[in-house]
Specification:
Blueprint (H helix, E strand, L loop, with lengths): L1 E8 L3 H12 L5 E4 L15 E3 L8 E2 H15 L2 E3 L3 E5 L4 E6 L2 E12 L3 E3 L14 E3 H11 L6 E5 L3 H12 L3 E7 L8 H8 L6 E3 L1 E7 L6 E6 L12 E4 L2 E4 L3 E3 L31 E3 L10 H19 L11 E6 L2 E5 L2 E2 L7 E8 L3 E10 L2 E11 L5 E6 H4 L7 E7 L2
Parallel strand pairs: 1-2, 1-8, 2-5, 8-19, 10-17, 11-12, 11-17, 12-13, 20-27
Antiparallel strand pairs: 3-4, 6-7, 7-8, 9-18, 14-15, 15-16, 20-22, 21-23, 23-26, 24-25, 24-27
Helix pairs in contact: 1-2, 1-6, 3-4, 4-5
GO molecular function: glutamate synthase (NADPH) activity
Organism: Clostridium acetireducens DSM 10703
Keywords: Oxidoreductase
């Protein structure tokens, strides 16, 4: 069995940031496990700009951004295994993995879960003959940006997520005719900046309150029948429309990559579907940390990197016998009323320095709402927000002094109120 102080699963923005910060903190015995044949994660296929504005103060492509960290990891001499898949984890922090050399086990003092997120292809519920020409946007992004293949010429995209919008622009730039982006909901799921830069600038129609009824074609997609839907996603009579195309791209929901955590005992949020964490990104299980998009979908990759740097510092403290990291986090944080999910899920006041940041995402467009924060049943904060959208993470800063007002604080409730 091999032994390392810290093992990081995943080499995207989060994993590399953790490794770099650990090295700066004097922790040398680090191992990164990556199942692909190169470091960098999904950023290796992101050739669009919008990265690095916060960290480097310049606008970079995803590949340029992650390359800076890959170079630093190599210069620091941090060990990593490529083409290595983690098969199993156990509570004793033993990892079973496999690569071209065979199956092996590694034991660590701390494990970082930085596996990111993936597309969830289930739930489309579209009638089809299983014809050629149907892909997810993540697959197509890899085809075009890393392999140089075009999946089709006349394209329709189902789903207005950020990656759906970005793929619509990329397909257009590569010569495809993107006929429409179809969205069953009444609002765009992606960020407003992506809506403007990816659809409006290229005159790509966004059809809200529409869904696909069925797909035409025998061997390959030949067209789609779309229909207007009501707020319950039920088709509206006499609203059917046909769009001729040869390719349908699905932009499904993004979910955390948590498969290997099954039966491990780490608490998984039934709302974010990622691991529950405390203010130091520690899970409920001793020695296990989680950061990046496996916890929740961040606003930007720069935010993921900043979280990774924080986790590196917290793990360094933990390895230097700071027992507070995994001591009882006895304050449970609840996110309710219009809020889809939030973090952290638990708080240990002893770990807070000057303030703590609560982050959450709403489940619908909210206007003129108040963010209310209750300590037990007493309202401590009441902040008005003119507009909140599902594509953006909201943040609340809470001063540590507020916690000292309560001797028996056991819960914090964050919810949205009308007044």
């Amino acid at each position: 069995m091999l032994y390392h102080d810290v093992i990081i699963i995943g080499s995207g923005a989060a994993g590399l940031a953790v490794a770099i910060e650990l090295k700066k903190q004097g922790i040398d015995d680090i191992l990164i496990l990556e199942r692909e044949n190169e470091l960098g994660g999904k950023l290796n296929q992101c050739i669009h700009t919008g990265f690095g504005i916060k960290i480097f103060k310049i606008d970079l492509t995803g590949t340029e951004y992650i390359q800076k960290f890959i170079i630093e990891v190599n210069n620091m001499g941090i060990l990593y295994y490529l083409n290595t898949t983690v098969l199993e984890l156990n509570r004793e922090r033993v990892i079973t993995a496999v690569n071209e050399k065979g199956i092996f086990e590694i034991k660590a003092k701390a494990i970082v879960l930085a596996m990111g997120c993936r597309e969830n292809p289930r739930g489309a519920n579209i009638y089809t003959n299983k014809c050629v020409g149907i892909y997810t946007v993540g697959t197509v992004q890899k085809f075009i940006n890393t392999q140089g293949y075009m999946p089709g010429k006349d394209v329709v995209i189902l789903g207005s997520t950020d990656i759906g919008l970005i793929t619509a622009r990329r397909m257009t730039l590569e010569g495809a005719n993107v006929k429409a982006v179809i969205e069953p909901k009444s609002y765009c799921l992606g960020k407003e900046i992506n809506l403007i830069e990816c659809l409006d600038f290229f005159n790509i129609p966004l059809k809200l309150n529409h869904n696909i009824l069925d797909i035409k074609g025998k061997d390959r997609v030949e067209g789609l029948n779309i229909v207007k839907v009501d707020e319950n996603m039920k088709p509206i009579a006499n609203s059917q429309e046909c769009i001729y195309c040869d390719t349908l791209l699905l932009a499904p929901n993004i979910i955390p990559e948590c498969n290997i955590l099954e039966n491990l005992g780490i608490y998984i949020s039934n709302r974010s579907l990622g691991p529950e964490i405390n203010e130091n990104f520690a899970t409920n299980m001793e020695g296990f940390f989680a950061c990046g998009d496996i916890v929740y979908l961040h606003n930007t990759v720069d935010d993921i990197t900043e979280d990774g740097f924080k986790v590196g510092k917290y793990i360094a403290e933990y390895l230097k016998d700071n027992s507070n990291i995994f001591s009882d986090s006895n304050i449970k944080v609840y996110f309710k009323d219009y809020i889809k999910y939030g973090v952290p899920n638990y708080i240990n006041v002893r770990n807070i320095e000057d303030f703590i940041i609560l982050k959450f995402k709403v489940n619908n467009i909210c206007t003129n709402k108040y963010i209310s924060v209750y300590f037990n049943d007493f309202k401590e904060l009441h902040i008005k927000k003119e507009r909140m959208v599902p594509a953006e993470i909201e943040s609340i800063y809470i001063d540590k002094k507020i916690f000292y007002k309560y001797n028996d604080l056991n819960k914090i409730i964050v919810k949205l109120e009308n007044e």
